[in-house]
Design a protein that fits this description.
single chain, 2 domains, 116 residues, mainly alpha, 2 strands
């Protein structure tokens, strides 16, 4: 994931992927909490006079949340600016024009940059 995000459309697609991954992690943490409640509620064990389901759902939910955030940051999140200084068409055109000007001389580049 070392490539840069260049167009506004790509930026929105990346933000959408990040939001979907975050939603999946949030649902997984909520499911863990409720599974602890439903599966362990009838057990007579206690920790510090608190029911086992409560301790495991709170502490386990915290650990699972930290792990989920770590996975989100390492696998899904990317650092980019969502600001769009140029329109998508203008930005694509500018990137195309810049790639075509690599063979120009310095004087021609200055004239070309002034026109853009």
């Amino acid at each position: 994931m070392s490539d840069t995000i260049k167009t506004y459309r790509d930026k929105l697609a990346q933000a959408d992927r990040e939001a979907r991954a975050t939603l999946v992690c949030a649902l997984a943490v909520a499911a863990f909490f409720w599974l602890c409640v439903l599966l362990l509620k009838d057990l007579p064990f206690t920790i510090f006079s608190l029911p086992l389901w409560f301790v495991l759902s709170c502490l386990g939910g915290y650990v699972m949340s930290v792990a989920a955030v770590w996975v989100l940051i390492k696998r899904y999140m990317r650092d980019f600016s969502l600001e769009d200084d140029l329109g998508e068409y203008e930005q694509d055109r500018l990137l195309t024009n810049r790639s075509q000007t690599t063979a120009l001389t310095t004087e021609q580049k200055e004239v070309h940059d002034v026109r853009i």
